[in-house]
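Consider the following input, taken from an annotated entry for tRNA (guanine-N(7)-)-methyltransferase (Cyclotella cryptica).
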Amino acid sequence: MAKSKPRSKRPRPESESEPITAEGDMPQKRFYRSRAHCNPLSFNENFDYPTRPDLFDWTEDHYPNHPSLSPHDDTKPNDDVISTFHSLSSVRPNVLDIGCGFGGLTLALSPLLPHHTILGLEIRAKVTEYVRLRIVAHRKEHPGQYQNCSVMRTNAMKYLVNYFPGGSLDKIFFCFPDPHFKKKNHPRRIVSERLLTEYAYLLKPGGKLYCITDVKDLHDWHVEKCSAHPLFVGCSEEEMVADPCVELMRTETEEGKKVEREGRFGHDKYYMVYKRVDGNLESAVTAENFFETGQFGVEVFENEKRA
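Applying the prediction step yields:
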């Protein structure tokens, strides 16, 4: 006679519509596990997204109590409508944690950058819901804090320009992205010639691009692609040491903690920070460099036959 399987310890909601975690309670990660990665190029679920950035209201679901939304001055009632409009329109993320995972860095950046608006981007639905509940729980536990961070589910390889205007971002983080080891899968990598041009468009002059991984080959790829792009320049070791965001990137992500805990790859974490140079895409392209191999994702084959 076959033995029956032990019953799962997972809490069972009284009805199918009842969530596992109540709003305001800290979610338990084991109930929100998902595949480590997915293919963003063949991810065919429908995402809702605005046709242009100014049509999206960030205060409705993401930052309803953003620090910049201060109470109105009752002595100036005639200015209420105008001031409310300007306050709402001024709330927009300027720090992105792309592929935020379970939200460790997104939450850690909130108190470090109180005058910035942080947004974690994640493509996996269950993981996004976990981070959302985690942020809600932190807001409940620490009144008045963590109002400048949120999370959103989207495909960052497709829809960034639908949400963010050019020159609006101060920082973009890529922490332990999928290495996509096979050469045929390299187009899926979140750092590429084509996407770097998009990131350069979104970043302000002087804005920073942060990359960290525990895979040496992927780190070399990051360095190669970023160093070759005309609108990015690498930060010095002194600049990275002085940047508190680098330390958080190394210590606060779940994947970074896992590397330390399990001792994978000899505890090595490879990282680099690149700065958006003060220039524009038009001036970066010249007659001399237009046909360079790899320029803006274009590969030129000269006097050779493709296999």
